[in-house]
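User: For documentation purposes, I need each entry recorded in a consistent format: the amino acid sequence on its own, followed directly by the corresponding structure tokens. There are two entries in this batch. Please keep commentary to a minimum and don't merge the entries.

Assistant: Recorded as requested. Entry 1:
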Amino acid sequence: MRTAIARGGAKAHKVDLGVGDLALVADEPVADGGTDLGPSPTELLCAALAACTAMTVGLYARRKGWPLEDTIVHVDRVAASGEPGAPIPKDEIHRKITFVGPLDDEQRKRLADIAEKCPVHKILVTANVVRTHVDP
């Protein structure tokens, strides 16, 4: 797996991203103080889940020889809103999947089950550890 590298953010929200030889940009919308030159980090996270879902179910359908013509995945984050004194609320990620093609109900159900196994989905629903090391 290639390492992701981010550079910037000191003078503005815009950050240049690199993944191997690939270049991307992350930013925030103008309303949030950015220049809207790219998706926000949260939007990139949602896009990662959408992409991984489509790739995972597509791979499975191809292996099975199923007539999946396209997969459309919509992912949105709904920020938690908690009341004082209530347990810490959690954000929700809503994913809507549309399978295009002459699939039967059993195939659609199986593809929905396979979507739950995409690697990004597993990362998001599992308690993970992020270890941060700061260079001296």
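Entry 2:
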Amino acid sequence: MLIKIKEGKFFEGSIEQSVLDSAVKSGLVFEYSCKTGQCGVCKTTLLEGEVFELQAQLALTEQEQLAQQFLTCCCAPKTDILIDSEDLQTLHGIELITLPVKINKIKRYVENIIEVTLRLPPNVDFKFIPGQYLDVIQNNIRRSYSISSTANQKLISLLIKKFENGKMSEYWFNQAKENDLLRIEGPKGTFFLRDSSLPIIFLATGTGIAPIISILNTLDESKDFIQKKSFALYWGNRYEEEFVYEPVFRKIKIQLIKVCSRPGKNWKGDVGHVQDILLKSSLDFSKFAVYACGSHAMIQSAKKALTKAGLLGDRFYSDSFLKNN
């Protein structure tokens, strides 16, 4: 079967392979994140032809299905099809690889949040776009973590939050030590900065701040980047001690709004859910792009509310943190 996209490109599809996997095999890159049908990032519109499900499209509503939308990670072509997807050329040349790594350092911020830095093998160049994530593999347990370091750094940094009764959390918080040997697979995901000519709102919950740290630090380090529009970062956590990152930049300017949902008596910042605090602002969302990373519930709520408040649907970029313990 032939799969075409609106910009004129086409590639071969198969009834045994998802549209997303067929695109990757052909050298094209579509929007995606979880690849399990839960986040909805890979949603597109079927303009011509038919598709069928290979796995449940959990993130798709009945209304979206009636509007001929489907998830490219979940469906295969039944006939030749034309879809409303974009080839993300920025990610061309970024190769998915598996590498051995060693733990270089473990820094404990608070009881339930650590930063792990990983050391690559000598002479290995791990190329990624700021905002992407990787999988860490330890004793056949695989978990995904966003990269908080920049591509210019020699070490890979990850912010990791503890999940109660989590198998990987048990390793990270009770067993892991420097020089442990692990494997990584990556980079993955299509969460990256698209257009810095627009005013930008970054929206994060918990360790969803990690890829945003990578994006912002990369801009700050860049000799070529000149900030022309405003940046704002809305960051939400349950407890005030979980705000473990304080941005310090050489040249970029950003407004930081911290939102705590379970504050202590001395908390002086905003209280509630981060997306609700953003919606209370007097911003004209039609002029902004939003980059959201964190809990799946926050992202789904934010996207629905912000588009209703005027944000253009194609200016909401996200990376959901699904259960990852």
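Summary note for entry 2:
The helical segments are 19-26, 62-66, 167-175, 210-221, 274-279, 296-308.
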